[in-house]
Amino acid sequence: MQLDSINFEFMPIIRKTKSVQILINTIKESSSAISVTDLINRYNEIMNKSTIYRILEKLEHEGIVHSFIGLDGLKWYAKCNNCSSKIHFDTHPHFQCQQCGKLDCLSTNISIPSIPNRKIDFAQVLIVGKCEKCL
Ligand SMILES: [Zn+2]
Ligand SMILES: [Zn+2]
Ligand SMILES: [Zn+2]
């Protein structure tokens, strides 16, 4: 799975304000996932917290980014690959380094079992360990 082949130009619904563009570029150019706290700390001088939350929610809805919960219990964001406003295909696990906190998408797919009498909205697998730098 090639994580770099995303067409960020194709954004039919979201209005590309400067804030939207900044957040998209930040997530797109980052090799690992970014926590919502990190984004807030980075941009609190140019956009407020609620704007950041609102934009991230929209980007996720549009299939541009996906979110998941890290070890800190916070939401983390990473770019999507071939997702759309109709469906996310992010069935990969995430890996978080316990030492430096780095969190990234793994390029393997996991199969989520179908469960009788249940509808699955999302599933997340977080693998915890040491990254290549901390090993
Ligand atoms: Zn997605
Ligand atoms: Zn590490
Ligand atoms: Zn991911």
SSE map:
Blueprint: H1 18-29, E1 34-35, H2 36-43, H3 49-61, E2 65-69, E3 75-79, E4 94-97, E5 103-105, E6 126-129
Parallel strand pairs: 4-6
Antiparallel strand pairs: 1-3, 2-3, 4-5
Bound molecules: zinc ion (3 copies).
One zinc ion (ZN) binds next to loops.
Could you characterize the architecture of this molecule?
With 135 residues, the protein is an alpha+beta fold. The protein has one domain (18-129): Arc Repressor Mutant, subunit A, CATH 1.10.10. 24% of the residues lie in helices and 17% in strands. The chain has 3 helices and 6 strands; from the N terminus they run αβααβββββ. The chain has helices at residues 18-29, 36-43, 49-61, and strands at residues 34-35, 65-69, 75-79, 94-97, 103-105, 126-129. The strands form 2 sheets. The protein has a 3-stranded antiparallel β-sheet. A 3-stranded mixed β-sheet has the order 5-4-6, with no helix packed on it. Helix 1 crosses helix 3 (49-61). The longest helix has 13 residues, at 49-61. The two termini are 25 Å apart. Residues 1-5 have low confidence and may be disordered. The structure holds zinc ion (3 copies). Residues 97, 99-100, 102, 130-131, 133-134 line the site of one zinc ion.
